[in-house]
Description:
There is one protein chain. By secondary structure, the chain is an alpha/beta fold. Helix content is about 45%, strand content about 10%. It has 2 domains: about 1-280, Aldolase class I (TIM Barrel, Alpha-Beta Barrel), CATH 3.20.20.70; about 280-400, GI Alpha 1, domain 2-like (Orthogonal Bundle). Helix 4 (about 95-115) links the parallel strand 3 and strand 4 (about 120). The relative contact order is 0.11.
Amino acid sequence: MFLDEILVAQKCGEAVGIPSICSAHPYVLRQTLKVFKRPLIETTCNQVNQYGGYTGMTPEEFVLYLRKLTNQINIPFEKIILGGDHLGPSVWQDKPADLAMGRAEALVQDYVKAGFAKIHLDCSMRLADDPIRALDVEISAKRVARLARIAEEVGQDLRYVIGTEVPLPGGAMQHDDGICVTAVEDARQTIEITHDAFSLEGLDSAWERVVAVVVQPGVEYGDDFVSPYKSGNTQELTLFIESQPMVYEVHSTDYQTSRALEDLVRDHFAILKVGPALTFAFREAVFSLALMENELFPTNECSNLISVIDDVMIQKPEYWVKYYHGDESERAFKRKYSFSDRIRYYWTDPKVQQAFTKMMQNLNRNPLPVALLTQYAPDVYSVTVEPRELTPESILLAKIQNVLEEYAKACNPGLR
């Protein structure tokens, strides 16, 4: 498996990594498939599960969805590495352990049967009848091993990721949320206790296929800030993992600079998860196109897409209301522009889709004027020789590609 090649290269001192694209957005996935030779595409337990998740897809349905996309752009489906992220009882934290873990077992089973080969097992969360305190590492490890045993029973040649140092769902709420680099002793404890739990379950062979442990190197983002990676803060972690048969996986690498991404890979944080930054780029492009539409068409002929999206978000606040705080004007701003990009949950809404389709139809009537391209899409127009080739769709894809290119460059040009 390609993940093994990444691991071997890292252990030989090569700064090689792989981006983990955590998104179900069709434009993001289409461009990902075009950019990378061996794309790692992941879904979380909240996005995709046996009950549909917020995408409305089961693991099997997500795989069929991906197959359809690969057929549309004539790319072999077999090149994809499928990953399941945070597989465990997270979705059912409010349930007793027996019920939550039973559902987690079914979740893992469905993912593996559907063809997911990179499995991040996460049982770090306290369940309803657990003691009211942080969950003991030993209990978490035993639950992880229990899920690994289920995965081994239904799958072959799987690769595992362990670890509980995960960021806050949806991004940090404030600038001072106390983002701390994982202590080496905590990383060591996670590895050793999880190893022991695997051994007790008779999973020594599976343990040999644990390729990464999730840690926090001090990267995070919130509504209006990004905590940059600082290599000097992770020197102990970097040295520690060199003695271990695995690398690090990092979540929430969105919005890091090119240099920061390169430094992460060099420091053995070889699996870089990204998602909202890609749909944020899509949102930026959509808004730019909507502003061009406003300049080119009478108000009564425009899609009014930006206002349609906000109206839908207000009518259906469940995906953002817990995350965006402040007075009404502050929350209105965040609905559009927050780095947390909760707007990504609304692109499939029928009203939004209708407005999006109308905007694209309007803008496809005639070539986009160069003056509007330089005003609203300068980062895309500047690298294009022929302005007439810049269709609305190509602008959307180019904005996404700009983000993907940063990861391709940081991980290794050979991924292209």
